[in-house]
Amino acid sequence: ATKAAYRLLSDEAIQYEDVIEPHWEQTRQVARTQSVVLMVQDLTTLNYSAYPSIQGLGPIGDNQGQGLQMSSVLAVLPASRQVLGMAYQLPFIRQLHDHHETRTQRAKRSKESDVWMKAVNAIGPCTPEVRWVHVGDRGADISAFFDACRQQNCDFLVRANQNRRMHTPSGKLTYLKTYAAQLPSVGEQILDLPAEHGLPARQANLHMSFSPLLLSSGWMNRKRPALPVWVVRVWEVNPPDWVEEPIEWILLTSVPTESVEQAWERVAWYRCRWLVEDFHMCLKTGCQIEHRRLAEATSLLRLLAILTPLAVELLQMRQLARLEPDVPAAKRLPADLVQVVASLTKHSVQDMTLSIFWRSVAQLGGHLGRKQDGPPGWKSLWVGWLYVQTLLKGFRLASGSGSS
User: In this structure, are strands 173-175 and 131-136 parallel, antiparallel, or unpaired?
Assistant: First the structure.
């Protein structure tokens, strides 16, 4: 089996897209049946600096290491945060360019930031009955990204990075961040923030303001008409003294935002962007994609195409456990899968909820499940999931149902 896996991963007749495109298309087909879908995109780095013998990689970080860059787009339902699947993924190798090039030269050549537009164009348009909203962090604050969304009849929601020239509803010329900072608060909410990066969990008191405006098309497109958008600003009031960077998001969206409820909804949509960061974490710490010692970058890409749907499946199950913790696991998952986990952990199938199922899988992977341990991490979940899949295969063979 190991030799067969190496033959598959080194087979030049099989490309990354050949393996993963069916998953993309299936995700898009499901997304076309929904009313609103968030196409949540983010970039990450796959670091293989510890394995210098791998051929075909590119520079990362300060150009002293080697690895791959990757853009992933998850399709997410905004109300429930249910993950439909991976709508598109683009691994690529960073190219070095002359640091002395002019602004005009840089604008004319292909750039790493083009991945945002490539994703929009690859996913394509949705039907008139459906609204697809491409959600991105500050890296997506690009005029070409806004144009690509409009050309594909999609919407966008991004966190502003540039202090763009704009016109207020009354026609006054000003700058985006200056204007957003002057808007009065029209509502407030409490946001629960989990413990991370060595900092304790806390509650943030958020205030919010919003307004329509007209964005300038930028110096490269002076002749284009201004772009009508809505800005939503969220900022933290009276943060603890130990907080170095209080929350402040300035969001730009093409989705009409004309009420306080709609403005808070846009904030909730932006928070769904963290799901793609969770996916990347699952791929790295769970699936251990950065610790696979293959000879060629092309082999790593084939492995990535195999592991990505598995990581998506784990993320989907975790979301189900969070959204419907008390629902019987047998109603959402294959009956024989639930039966195997229930037998291993001394539970009955009838009593096994999605929450119990999820924690049971993690415990089979080494998570102790004590109160002070917190929620299970991706590493223990991945180990437990592989163990369960091995036993499930044996269960199906013994029962005559095969390995399907």
Answer: unpaired
Amino acid at 290: E
The DSSP letter of residue 268 is H
Distance CA 402, CA 384 (A): 22
Identify the three-state secondary structure at position 12: coil
Distance CA 26, CA 85 (A): 8
CA atoms lying within 13 Å on the CB side of residue 101:
12
Backbone φ, ψ for residue 99 (5° rounding): -70, -15
Strands (E), 48-194: 58-60, 65-76, 83-92, 131-136, 155-159, 165-167, 173-175, 187-193
Separation of alpha carbons 41 and 115, rounded Å: 10
Q: Check: CB of residue 354 under 8 Å from CB of residue 325.
A: yes
Summarised one tens digit per residue, pLDDT across range 47-79 is: 999 999 999 999 998 878 999 999 999 999 999
Query: Phi-psi region for residue 56, left (φ > 0), alpha (ψ -120 to 50) or beta?
Result: left
In angstroms, what CA-CA distances link 177 with 162, 181, 256?
8, 6, 20
Q: Is 209 helix (H, G, I), strand (E, B) or coil?
A: strand
pLDDT in tens, 162-204: 999 999 999 999 999 999 999 999 999 999 887 776 778 888 9
CA 80 to chain centre: 15
Ramachandran region, residue 400 (left: φ > 0; alpha: ψ -120 to 50; beta: rest): left
pTM, two decimal places: 0.89
Q: Residue 165 CB: number of other CB atoms within 10 A?
A: 16
Q: Choose among 291, 264, 153: nearest CA to 206.
A: 264
Closest by CA position to 17, among listed 294, 299, 297, 302: 302
